[in-house]
Amino acid sequence: xxxxxxxxxxxxxxxxxxxxxxxxxxxxxxxxxxxxxxxxxxxxxxxxxxxxxxxxxxxxxxxxxxxxxxxxxxxxxxxxxxxxxxxxxxxxxxxxxxxxxxxxxxxxxxxxxxxxxxxxxxxxxxxxxxxxxxxxxxxxxxxxxxxxxxxxxxxxxxxxxxxxxxxxxxxxxxxxxxxxxxxxxxxxxxxxxxxxxxxxxxxxxxxxxxxxxxxxxxxxxxxxxxxxxxxxxxxxxxxxxxxxxxxxxxxxxxxxxxxxxxxxxxxxxxxxxxxxxxxxxxxxxxxxxxxxxxxxxxxxxxxxxxxxxxxxxxxxxxxxxxxxxxxxxxxxxxxxxxxxxxxxxxxxxxxxxxxxxxxxxxxxxxxxxxxxxxxxxxxxxxxxxxxxxxxxxxxxxxxxxxxxxxxxxxxxxxxxxxxxxxxxxxxxx
Length: 429
Ligand code: GDP
Ligand code: IMO
Ligand code: MG
Fold this sequence. Notes:
alpha/beta; 10-stranded mixed sheet; 13 helices; 21% strand; binds magnesium ion
């Protein structure tokens, strides 16, 4: 009956998809609770690669049930594409395997248009969003003019909302952003077809999850993005528009905080960031190039190169605090192989003082200098290691340093992209 949350402790792309897929063997229900198709979660199973943007990463296990919670923003056309791509690989996902919250908000074409227009107008000050319409969709949700999955399923309600919203959005697109406006006709047509296709998947997620708990099943909650992209706690305004912290499970899936047993925080053995914003440990030298090349650090959603830097434990420790993380899963340790010296940021220096938190003022964060602990690297191939004892001493030292300085035990060490390339050092269920 225990329920576990998986979240990112950095700026996303920590390997959440891989670890969720791995932990799915111990759960019967897998739930996305925030974000949308700005996420790109990669799974590698026996050499086969899958990237999911909206479908929970448990979807490959055909005896499990996956859920898209009310806190997620859903692009129905992208969801259908994902279902079709799986069907082409012989994996049929029926309504018995996927439940979409009737209360989840829908991403509309005008959200994408506004996202892109806004970014274009911002020029050098752009956030570097994924252009998927995430921000404008959450803006409409909070502004109480959003369209929910249940509204999409009711043609008259849907049409009325689209017409009302387009009046305002087209005004903005034309007059303020000086870009093309959108016609309601094709939107209503394509979304109505999507509604027909997706209608069988609509359901009451909190009710279903309560029944699952009563029958003694385990639930796994899959976070998207990462702690420092959190709208409240991240490097605002260079953040996403949802709350990737663990507390968001309750609001975004409709499950009370008393139902959560543990929170697994994903930590990449170095740091990456896609898009703009300060990055204290960023590297622009050959070490950074090594991380990008060996780590294949290109966005799973947009294909953009990810900015790379040393592991920042100030950021990770803050994530541990913010989400009450009970264990860490350290990923991509294998990517560090071959680097002579490794650095780990243990504090920031700001105006001659050492601090161990991220300052809220962006300009202060941008002025922070990393304080590093340097440790030795290793050259041995570690991808075959399945226990800590099989790692070279320098790699063990790295793992121990993360555990000590983040102040949290490590439950998993990932040494390759495949489901099997994992060292399990602790139980989370
Ligand atoms: P997510 O968004 O947190 O699910 O992470 P992404 O899928 O965007 O990015 C993580 C990338 O690293 C994917 O390509 C994974 O296949 C890959 N990956 C995950 N764990 C490991 C690992 O331990 N070693 C290596 N080399 N690759 C990994
Ligand atoms: P996963 O789940 C990395 C970043 C974007 C941009 C900012 C805002 O794969 O870890 P948005 O489109 O959300 O309004 O963009 O957030 N971003 C991510 N970066 N991984 C992600 O998801 C991200 N989702 C959004 O690059 O800087
Ligand atoms: Mg990703």
